[in-house]
Amino acid sequence: MDVKTGFFFLFSVVLLFAAFRVITARNPVHAVLFLMLSFSQASAIWLLLKAEFLAITLVLVYLGAVMVLFLFVVMMLDIKIDQLRQGFWKHLPLAVTLGAVVVLEMAAVLLTGFRVSDEPAVAQVIGQPAANVDNAKELGILLYTEYVYPIQVAACILLVAMIAAIALTLRQRKDSKAIDPSIQVRVRASERMSIVKVETTRAAPPAAAPEENKP
């Protein structure tokens, strides 16, 4: 067994353990952390399979943005763990059935083998030797040459969506107590505080003595 195969089995074992802990961890924060660990191990496996673009995308998009957002949301929310586990045993048969179906499908794929094209054929299409093929570089060249206009259209759509989201978030609300900073700068001290003269407090008059009961 060479070094590459050893790393593959190491990353696979850690990935399976982290995925198992995602569904068995009692603390939601720990579950999110184990999910981040599983994504990192999947990215390492993709690097071993020479899928650099998928590995980098998984790290940047999921670990760098989505999972960090999930982690902060889970930590800030007051999640009642007991309420989440009330329907665990109720849905367990369905979960076991779906898990068995997934395992059977994966076993069928692994036993029959994968249908992959030969690497020299792919290298001939690109025009480079098989040992010098870099899928991330070739994908970038393909995106910015043949598919440059669809990429620009998608970028414009994402830019419009981002601006629209910012505009909807920062729109003026009637129930907001925010004050315009320009108004705060031009305000004067006399406008903020007014002095009111109050009369001196006087002592209360003595209470009248109660009349004694006459016989």
Draw up the topology in text.
Blueprint: H1 3-24, H2 28-48, H3 52-76, H4 81-84, H5 92-112, H6 119-126, H7 135-143, H8 148-169, H9 181-186, H10 189-192
Overall description:
The chain has 215 residues and is mainly α. Among the domains are: 1-79, NADH-ubiquinone/plastoquinone oxidoreductase chain 6, subunit NuoJ (Four Helix Bundle (Hemerythrin (Met), subunit A)); 120-170, no CATH class. The chain is 66% helix and 0% strand. The chain has ten helices and no strands. It has helices at residues 3-24, 28-48, 52-76, 81-84, 92-112, 119-126, 135-143, 148-169, 181-186, 189-192. α2 packs antiparallel against α3. The longest helix has 25 residues, at 52-76.
Order of helices and strands: HHHHHHHHHH
Q: Which value, in Å, is the CA radius of gyration? A: 34 Å
CATH-level-4 superfamily name of the domain at 1-79: NADH-ubiquinone/plastoquinone oxidoreductase chain 6, subunit NuoJ
Classify the fold: give the CATH topology of the domain at 1-79: Four Helix Bundle (Hemerythrin (Met), subunit A)
Report the mean per-residue pLDDT as an integer.
Answer: 77
Distance between the termini: 121 Å
CATH architectural grouping of the domain at 1-79: Up-down Bundle
Quaternary structure type? single chain
Structural class of the helix and strand makeup? Answer: mainly alpha
Q: What is the CATH domain class of the domain at 1-79?
A: Mainly Alpha
Q: Count of helical segments? A: 10
Percentage of helical residues?
55-70%
What is the molecular shape? elongated
Q: How many DSSP-defined strands?
A: 0
**Low-pLDDT windows of residues:** 120-125
